[in-house]
Amino acid sequence: MDANLVAANNAFGFDLFSQLLKEDKDKNVSFSPLSVALALEMTYNGAVGETHDAMVKVLKLNGMNHPQLNEAAAGLMKTLKSNDPKIELAIANSLWARQGTKFNPAFLERNQKFFGAEITAIDFASPKAKDTINAWVSKNTKGKIPAIIDRIDAGQAMFLINAVYFKGQWQKKFEKAMTKDESFHLAAGGQKNVPLMSQSGNYQYYRGEKFQAVSLPYGQGGTNLYLFLPDEGASLNEFLKGLSFEKWEQWTSSFRSMPGDIKIPRFKMDYDRSLNQALMALGMGVAFTSGADFSGIRAERDLMISEVKHKAIVEVNEEGTEAAAATSVGMVTTSMRQPQQRFTFIADRPFLMAIRNQQTGAILFLGTVMEPK
Q1: CA distance 212 to 268
Q2: Does residue 274 contact residue 307 with C-beta atoms inside 8 Å?
Q3: Average pLDDT for residues 24-42, to the nearest whole number?
Q4: Count of C-beta atoms within a 10 Å radius of residue 176
Q5: Are 44 and 61 within 8 A, CB to CB?
């Protein structure tokens, strides 16, 4: 497993998160940095010239050529596979190509060999094409994301799709009898009643400046849920302004075991959006124009990205967490502080959440809970 790729994916994830927060200010945001990175890395396998350089910069792949990336991606996906009976993590990739259109065999082979991509030539003119692709997404997210493709346009040449499914049971489950409706203070003012789950015990904990954080393990502890809660009087938006990959690395290495009492809401988040604007803002604009060079996919150099679409769902309850994400890349032809002795962590106001694989450090899901639903 290549630690450089994990760091690249996580750093890209925080950059993308920052852009999404600008587009969805004060709303729940939830996405899978891993899913978006893998879908774009499959696409990167066919990028050449200026397009290649732009994708390297945005995806933080500096110094990593195509063969190195492919080996690293294959190693990461293999390492992420869980042997823990209480943790299920499935990653699947697929590539759907327009029937009768010629593509570079080396590009297809690389994605099949290293990303395990299922490659299918399909008649995009058929009304069943969209349903076939969406059925694959639904199957690989256990029905949590029933569809990612809304339509197939006349110039559509290819879809590269990643699906991630995660289900983890808490190492220590919350007792349902302890769950009580309590007030959750909204960012815009006011409050609403939400079910807060509670328990006490020893937890990995970190006290930062104007915030505290707790890490809750699933199963044998191979994957954890991280919650970052700004102090009363401090806002999540202010906290997010100071959030970066570097800070994340510093904080996650500083958690220490401490006794404490925690309350966290049951919540479910659905997120569905095009990532085009965010990726353009990060510097990948050329890939979305007729000047894109994906001649590694097709010698004619007539392809560009039409849309990068992402859907994610995260549900946290007394039993554990279930989360799924899918990312589709559509291609068209052109034309830190010392802790207190005991802590109390009550997430009764907006907070940041992340699901992180402990062995690799890979961030599987990242989001903000502005209003539990």
Answers
A1: 22
A2: yes
A3: 94
A4: 12
A5: yes
